[in-house]
């Protein structure tokens, strides 16, 4: 583990000794600490004992809320995706392109405010076990369905268009991760513009290919 990552983990908010939280607040606190830990390191590198220490609780108490590491990480992943879906909920009153752009802007807003959660979702999850991958894929399917719905009533039944949208989601994820970690000279509007243009190109290419005999 690098010194930078150690610094990140050692400076997460800890629970004060003796602080008593209600069950829902305790669970939320553990999920927040876990997201920070898994956002800093790969799944296999995170130890539950370390997470418990950062949270200011015993290992046994953490396991009282989550029966194991995999279940704990799955809860973090699902919570993160639920927050993204909520933040990017489309406005059906807008035209399709405006809907998609507004949702994309909200997506980048969420990433800026929660970079550790985003890294946990799409970097740590890549090294996790198959059940975690299934959680990720189910949520990507939900995001793809939203985009396809905005493109028109026939879109969800067009296999080529579905493929293009799923491929674009992979592009979006990696573009945003790269922007977070290695592209400080790219501002958020440039990121949004290139992702929006890439989506339009992918949709246009799939529609053109579908018309080719």
Radius of gyration: 19 Å
Low-pLDDT parts are 1-18
* Overall shape: elongated
Give the strand tally.
Answer: 0
Q: Count of helical segments?
A: 10
CATH topology of the largest domain: Tetracycline Repressor, domain 2
**Share in helix:** over 70%
Largest sheet: none
Q: What series of H and E elements makes up the topology?
A: HHHHHHHHHH
CATH architecture of the largest domain: Orthogonal Bundle
Tell me the β content: under 5%
Mean pLDDT: 87
CATH class of the largest domain: Mainly Alpha
Query: In total, how many domains does the architecture comprise?
Result: 2
Structural class: mainly alpha
* Spatial separation of the terminal alpha carbons: 54 Å
Describe the structure.
The protein is an all-alpha fold. The protein has two domains: 3-71, Arc Repressor Mutant, subunit A (Orthogonal Bundle); 77-211, Tetracycline Repressor, domain 2, CATH 1.10.357. Helices cover 74% and strands 0% of the residues. It has helices at residues 3-10, 23-40, 48-55, 59-65, 69-87, 96-113, 115-124, 130-151, 159-182, 188-211. Helix 7 (115-124) packs across helix 9.
List strands and helices in order, with pairings.
Blueprint: H1 3-10, H2 23-40, H3 48-55, H4 59-65, H5 69-87, H6 96-113, H7 115-124, H8 130-151, H9 159-182, H10 188-211
